[in-house]
Amino acid sequence: MDREVDLSTFLSERCRFYQFKEGFRFGTDTFLLTDFVRVKGSEKLIDLGTGCGVIPILLLLKYPKLTAVGVDVLKENVEIAEKNAEINNVSDRFSSVALNVKDIKRHFKPASFDIVVSNPPFIEKGRGNVAGNTLRAYARQEISAELSDFIDAARYLLKNRGRFYLLLPVQRFTDAVFLLRERKLEPKRLRFIYPCPGRGANLFLLEAVKGGGKGLYVEPPLIVYRDCDTRLYTEEVDRKYKSFLP
Questions:
Q1: Helix (H) / strand (E) containing 135
Q2: Are 210 and 180 in contact (CB under 8 A)?
Q3: Model's pTM, two decimal places?
Q4: Which residues lie below 8 Å from residue 132, measured CB to CB, with a gap of 6+?
Q5: Phi, psi at residue 112, to the nearest 5°?
Q6: With contact defined as beta carbons under 8 Å apart, do 221 and 192 qualify?
Q7: I need a surface site. Which of 158, 187, 225, 228 has the fewest CB within 10 A?
């Protein structure tokens, strides 16, 4: 691992994560997706595009019966995710694989997971500013795989009635719902994220169930900051951070 890393503490210093100084760095959005995931006992989870492994590691810390796998196309991300699992004492329940989601069938058996999570690259090919083949570009732009590839992988990996959790900008909402329903992953729970009062939604959280029946529950709006100037968290977001881990 040649790139420079630093160590960040998280959730009132109850866990620690190495991440690259240059490139995509996790933040509130990553945590809100983690908080949105529902885990039921001894389940198996896989995170597609895991980066430094924050989502599965946080969930392993919260749910002691969970086992998790992180998949990322970049080997350096996989290496740092394994290091983060070790320093947070969950390496016995975590494994990671350097793999393009388009090649998921080469490594995993079908219907082998209860939960799939992903915060996939969201900038479509031919749109936005291309940042080259950097870590940040791979996290944001459809360089190695498209949204449809992530959803195809989720469908293949999930058991019947398994759950897929997704975070994307609202610009990809119609694309996501169309692709999910086309692949028999039925949207069941939806929450729009707003940066602050008076602003439009910029992100959404979505839970889809493989083989689920029709019926979507839209949760109340999730507002992140009390106002966009001070960037102080709302009571709800602050409460989520304080209560996430025991």
A1: helix 135-140
A2: no
A3: 0.90
A4: none
A5: -105, 5
A6: yes
A7: 228
How many other CB atoms sit within 10 Å of the CB of residue 26? 20
Tell which CATH classification among 3.40.50.720, 3.20.20.70, 3.40.50.300, 3.40.50.150 matches the domain 5-243. Answer: 3.40.50.150
DSSP 164-216: EEEEEEGGGHHHHHHHHHHTTEEEEEEEEEESSTTSPP-EEEEEEEETPPS--
Residue 97: count other Cβ atoms within 10 Å of its Cβ. 16
Q: What is the 8-class DSSP label of residue 243?
A: H
- Asked whether the beta carbons of 143 and 121 are under 8 A apart, the reply is yes
| 179-205 pLDDT, tens digit each | 999 999 999 999 999 999 999 999 999
Domain ranges of the chain: 5-243
Beta carbons within 8 Å of 46's beta carbon, 6+ residues apart: 68, 69, 70, 71, 108, 113, 115, 116, 117, 157
Distance CA 209, CA 214 (A): 10
pLDDT digits (tens, 9 = 90+) for 91-147: 999 999 999 999 999 999 999 999 999 999 844 455 555 555 554 444 444 456 799
Report the candidate in 26, 50, 192 with the shortest Cα–Cα distance to residue 116: 50
Q: Give the span between the Cα atoms of 190 and 176, in whole angstroms.
A: 12
Measured distance CA(221)–CA(184) in Å, rounded: 26
